[in-house]
C-alpha cells in the first residue's frame, strides 16, 4: 500500500457546482483544503441546461454571493444573456436568470479556483474513505494514492453507480463521456449509510446550422439587465438571444409510439425523476390533453456551437426523439449532435445529515449537492457553501453555521432535506419558503453579509464596501420617513404611475406603499444626493411596500428563531426524558436534532413534546 501523500483539514470530492463552493468556502476560511475530482477540465461543467438562476434558484445564487461564494461572479463572467423572470409580479418572487457560455463557465470556474493560493486541485477518483482511530479520515483513490483529512465533503453529483439510458440502450456513466463512481458508492454503503436511486434527464443538443431560426420567436435579454453579483467588476454580456417554439399533437403522437421502449415506463429505470423538471414523455403522459408544450432553444456558447432544447428532456429511443423533433416548427430539418438521455444514480438519504450537511453517524463527513437528492446547479452550490463552511469551522472547533428558514432559501433547503425523507429529486420553489417575502434577490446582502463576515467569508475591502451601502440605505430610509412632500410636488409623479393624486402633503415613504410606483425613478427624483445602488433602491422599496406583511410575520419569525437558538447536544440521550412519549423519544433519537426548533419540524413531533423539551433544556 502506498504511503499517505498529504494531510489536509478539508478535502472536497467533486468539482461540480457544489464542490466549487465547498472548496472555495473552506479555503476562504483559511484551512488547508484540497479538491479531488475525476477530471480537472470538467470543473464547473454544466451537465444540462446552459443557464443559472430562475425563480427561487436565482435567489439562491444571490444568497451564495452575499455569503462570499462564487456562483454569481462566475455567471456574470460567463453569462451571455440576462433576464429577470417574474417581473410582472412583486420583487419578492423575481428570479434573476442568465444564459451562460458553458465552456466559459467551466473555464472561469477552474481559473478562479487556480487563483486561490494554497488550494490544492488534484485529479483522481475517490474509491474509499475510512475513519482512522485518530478521528481523521483516510482516503484511497482508484489509482492507489492515499491522503488523510480532518473533514471530508462528498459532492459526487450524479456519478454514484450511475447508468445512462436512451430507449433500449444502456451505458455506464454519470454524464455523457464520463465514468461512474462505483467504488465510492460501495464505500458509502460499507460505512453504514443508506443510499437510494434517483433519476434525471437531459434533452438533445442540436446543430444550429440546421435550425430555421427565421421563423422562430426571438427572446432577447432584458433591456436594463441585472448582474447576478454586485461585486462583478466588468460589464456583463447581454447581447445574445434565445428562441421559442412548441411541440404539437403530431410530436406527441410520435413520442407516444415510443413509450413501449421507454426505460422509464418499462420499469428499467427504478429511480424517481424530478416531478418539476419532467421529461417530455412524462409531460405528455401526465398532461395528455395539452395540444403543445413550450420549448426554449438556448445557445450553449456565445458563438452558438450547439443549441440546447429546454423542455424536451427525453430518454426515448433515438429514432423516436429525432422523428418527433422534425415535427416541431423551426426544427423540420434539424440534425442532432447529442441525443437526449436519462441518468440513474445513487443518492444519499439526506435525513442522515444535520442541516450543516454533516453526517449524524460519522462526524467530519459531509455530503452536498445532487448526491443529497436535489436537482439543479443552484441547489447544489447552496449546499456546497454550507457544507464547505461547516467542514472548515469544525477543524477550528468553531460553532456550526446554519441558516434559518426565515434567513435564506438555502436554510429552507437544508431544513427540508435533513428533516423530510424525499421520494423524488428536490427542486427549490418560492412556495417552499413560508417567509418568502423576506427572501428576496434584492436584500441578500442585508440578510447574510454580517453573518458571513463573522465566519471569515468576507474580506475587509468587501465588508467596507457593504458598510458604506448599509449606511446609505439607513440614511435614505430615515430621510423618507421624516420628509414630507407637497401635493404639488408629488401629484405629477403619482398620476404618471396611474395613482390617485393627494390633496395634502404626505411623507415620502408612504409613496412607496402605493402600487405602480417605479422605485428607480422615485429615488432619482425625490432623494437628493442619493448614492444608493440599484439593488438597494429595490430593497428599500420592498421593505416599505411589504411593511404590513412583515409586521404580521415578525412575531412568528422571532418565535422560530428563539426555538432555533435553544441548542441540543449531538449526544443528547432522549430516552432519559421520561415526560416524552416512547414514540417521540424514538423519533428524536433517530433524527438527532441540534436545536429545539429542528425538533419541532420532525414529522410526528407534537407541540406538547416541544414544551417538554424546552423545559428539559432549561433545567439541564
Ligand atoms: C443528464 C443530466 C441532466 C441534468 N439536468 C439538469 C438541468 O437541466 N439543470 C440543472 O440545473 N441540473 C441538471 N442536472 C443536474 C446537475 O448536473 C446537477 O444538479 C448539478 O450539476 C449538481 O452539481 P453537483 O456539484 O452536485 O454535481 P456535479 O455537477 O454532477 O459534479 C460532480 C463532480 O464530482 C466528481 N466526482 C464524482 N464522483 C467522484 C469520485 N469518486 N472521485 C472524484 N470525483 C468525483 C465528478 O467528476 C464531477 O466533477 C442534470 C444532470 C445530468 C447528468
Ligand atoms: N436535475 C435535473 O434532473 C433537472 C432536469 C431538468 C431541469 N432541472 C432544473 O430545472 C431548471 C430548468 O428547468 P425549467 O425547465 O423550469 O427551466 P428554467 O428554470 O430554466 O426556467 C424556468 C422558467 O423560466 C422560463 N424560461 C425557460 N427558459 C427560458 C429562457 N431561455 N429565457 C427566459 N425564460 C426562460 C420558463 O417559463 C420556465 O418555465 C434548471 O435550472 C435545473 O435546475 C433539473
What would you note in describing this structure?
36% of the residues lie in helices and 18% in strands. By secondary structure, the protein is of the alpha+beta class. The protein has 3 domains: 6-446, FAD/NAD(P)-binding domain, CATH 3.50.50.60; 460-547, tRNA uridine 5-carboxymethylaminomethyl modification enzyme MnmG/GidA (Arc Repressor Mutant, subunit A), CATH 1.10.10; 566-619, Orthogonal Bundle (DNA polymerase, domain 1). Strand 10 and strand 11 form a beta hairpin. Helix 1 (17-29) packs parallel to helix 9 (377-395). The protein is globular and about 80 Å long. Bound molecules: flavin-adenine dinucleotide and nicotinamide-adenine-dinucleotide (NAD). Nicotinamide-adenine-dinucleotide (NAD) is lined by residues 48-49, 51, 54, 57, 83, 85, 200, 219, 242, 274, 277, 296, 298, 310-311, 313, 375-377, 425.
In short:
36% of the residues lie in helices and 18% in strands. It is an alpha+beta fold. The relative contact order is 0.12.
Amino acid at each position: 500500500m502506498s504511503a499517505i501523500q498529504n494531510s489536509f483539514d478539508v478535502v472536497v470530492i467533486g468539482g461540480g457546482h457544489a464542490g466549487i463552493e465547498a472548496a472555495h468556502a473552506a479555503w476562504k476560511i483559511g484551512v488547508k483544503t484540497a479538491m479531488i475530482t475525476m477530471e480537472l477540465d470538467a470543473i464547473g461543467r454544466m451537465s444540462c441546461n446552459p443557464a443559472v438562476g430562475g425563480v427561487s434558484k436565482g435567489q439562491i445564487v444571490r444568497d451564495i454571493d452575499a455569503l462570499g461564494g462564487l456562483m454569481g461572479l462566475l455567471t456574470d463572467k460567463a453569462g451571455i444573456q440576462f433576464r429577470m423572470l417574474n417581473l410582472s409580479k412583486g420583487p419578492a418572487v423575481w428570479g434573476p436568470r442568465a444564459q451562460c457560455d458553458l465552456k466559459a463557465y467551466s473555464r472561469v470556474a477552474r481559473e478562479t479556483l487556480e487563483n486561490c493560493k494554497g488550494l490544492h486541485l488534484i485529479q483522481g477518483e475517490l474509491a474509499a474513505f475510512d475513519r482512522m482511530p485518530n478521528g481523521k479520515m483516510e482516503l484511497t483513490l482508484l489509482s492507489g494514492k492515499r491522503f488523510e483529512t480532518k473533514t471530508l465533503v462528498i459532492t459526487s453529483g450524479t456519478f454514484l453507480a450511475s447508468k445512462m439510458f436512451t430507449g433500449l440502450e444502456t451505458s455506464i456513466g454519470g454524464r455523457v463521456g464520463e465514468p461512474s463512481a462505483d467504488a465510492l458508492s460501495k464505500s458509502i454503503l460499507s460505512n453504514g449509510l443508506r443510499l437510494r436511486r434517483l433519476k434525471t434527464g437531459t434533452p438533445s443538443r442540436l446543430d444550429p446550422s440546421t435550425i430555421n431560426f427565421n421563423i422562430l420567436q426571438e427572446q432577447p435579454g432584458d433591456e436594463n439587465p441585472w448582474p447576478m453579483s454586485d461585486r462583478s467588476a466588468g460589464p456583463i454580456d447581454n447581447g445574445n438571444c434565445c428562441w421559442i417554439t412548441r411541440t404539437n399533437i403530431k410530436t406527441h403522437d410520435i413520442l407516444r409510439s415510443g413509450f413501449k421502449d421507454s426505460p422509464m415506463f418499462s420499469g428499467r429505470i427504478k429511480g424517481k425523476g424530478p416531478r418539476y423538471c419532467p421529461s417530455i414523455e412524462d409531460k405528455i403522459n401526465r398532461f395528455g390533453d395539452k395540444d403543445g408544450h413550450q420549448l426554449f432553444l438556448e445557445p450553449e456558447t456565445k458563438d452558438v456551437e450547439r443549441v440546447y432544447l429546454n423542455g424536451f428532456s427525453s430518454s426515448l429511443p433515438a429514432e423516436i426523439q429525432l422523428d418527433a423533433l422534425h415535427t416541431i416548427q423551426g426544427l423540420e430539418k434539424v440534425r442532432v449532435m447529442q441525443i437526449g438521455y436519462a441518468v440513474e444514480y445513487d443518492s444519499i438519504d439526506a435525513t442522515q445529515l444535520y442541516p450543516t450537511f454533516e453526517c449524524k453517524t460519522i462526524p467530519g463527513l459531509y455530503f452536498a449537492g445532487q448526491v443529497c437528492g436535489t436537482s439543479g446547479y443552484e441547489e447544489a452550490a447552496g449546499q456546497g457553501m454550507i457544507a464547505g463552511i461547516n467542514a472548515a469551522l469544525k477543524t477550528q472547533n468553531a460553532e456550526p453555521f446554519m441558516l434559518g428558514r426565515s434567513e435564506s432559501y438555502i436554510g429552507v433547503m437544508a431544513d427540508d432535506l435533513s428533516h423530510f425523507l424525499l421520494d423524488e429529486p428536490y427542486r427549490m420553489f418560492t412556495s417552499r419558503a413560508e417567509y418568502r417575502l423576506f427572501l428576496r434577490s434584492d436584500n441578500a446582502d442585508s440578510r447574510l453579509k454580517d453573518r458571513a463576515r463573522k465566519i471569515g467569508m468576507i474580506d475587509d475591502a468587501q465588508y467596507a464596501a457593504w458598510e458604506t451601502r448599509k449606511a446609505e440605505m439607513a440614511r435614505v430610509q430615515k430621510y423618507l420617513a421624516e420628509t414630507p412632500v407637497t401635493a404639488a410636488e408629488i401629484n405629477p409623479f403619482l398620476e404618471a404611475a396611474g395613482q390617485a393624486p393627494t390633496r395634502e402633503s404626505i411623507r415620502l415613504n408612504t409613496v412607496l406603499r402605493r402600487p405602480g410606483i417605479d422605485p428607480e425613478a422615485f429615488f432619482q427624483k425625490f432623494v437628493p444626493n442619493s448614492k444608493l445602488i440599484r439593488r438597494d433602491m429595490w430593497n428599500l422599496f420592498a421593505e416599505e411596500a411589504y411593511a404590513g406583511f412583515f409586521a404580521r410575520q415578525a412575531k412568528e419569525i422571532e418565535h422560530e428563531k428563539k426555538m432555533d437558538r435553544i441548542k441540543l447536544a449531538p449526544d443528547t440521550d432522549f430516552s432519559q426524558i421520561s415526560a416524552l412519549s416512547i414514540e417521540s423519544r424514538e423519533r428524536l433519537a433517530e433524527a438527532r436534532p441540534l436545536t429545539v426548533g429542528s425538533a419541532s419540524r420532525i414529522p410526528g413531533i407534537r407541540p406538547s413534546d416541544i414544551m417538554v423539551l424546552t423545559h428539559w433544556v432549561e433545567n439541564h
